[in-house]
Amino acid sequence: MSSDMSEELFTQVAAVKDLKPSLKIYVSVGGWTFSDNDTVTQPLFGEIAADATKRRTFANNTLKILNTYGFDGIDIDWEYPGAGDRRGKPRDTDNYVKLLAKLRSTFNASGRKLGISFTAPSSYWYLKWFDLPGLLKYAD
C-alpha cells in the first residue's frame, strides 16, 4: 500500500467519527502476515521491543499518527513473541511488556486518553510466551 493510499484510508476511517463522535478508532499494527517467517517485517516487533531507543521512537511515531488522524489508540498484533516457529526469542516476553509500558507512558504524557490493546492467542503453545499480568498493566 502506498503512503498516499494509507493517508487517504486513514482520513476516511477517521471521518466515520463525524457520524458517531463517541466511536473509538484504534490502529491495528502487525498480524499473521506481518509476522511471517522470511519476510522483511517479521523481525520488526522483536527489534523494536528489545531496544529502548526504538521503543521510544515507535511510541512517539504512534502518538504522532494517532494525533494526526484523531485515532483513539493502538492494537498490537504480534504473532507471536517468543515462539520459535515464528522466529521469536525468549526475551520477547519481557520486551513486549516494556514496549507496552513505553506506549502507555508516552500516551499518558500527551494529555490525551489513548488506548492500548493487544491480540492474544487462544493456543497454549503461543499464549505461554505472553506475560498477561505484565501486559494488562498497560493495556485497556
From TrEMBL:
Q: Which reaction does it catalyse?
A: Random endo-hydrolysis of N-acetyl-beta-D-glucosaminide (1->4)-beta-linkages in chitin and chitodextrins
Q: Which residues form the GH18 domain?
A: 1-140
Q: What is this protein called?
A: DNA, SC003
Q: Which GO terms describe its molecular function?
A: endochitinase activity
Might you name a Gene Ontology BP term for this protein? chitin catabolic process
Q: Which organism is it from?
A: Aspergillus oryzae (strain ATCC 42149 / RIB 40) (Yellow koji mold)
- Family according to the record: Belongs to the glycosyl hydrolase 18 family.
Record's PROSITE patterns? GH18_1, GH18_2
Q: Which UniProt keywords apply?
A: Carbohydrate metabolism, Chitin degradation, Glycosidase, Hydrolase, Polysaccharide degradation
Residue ranges annotated as coiled coil are none
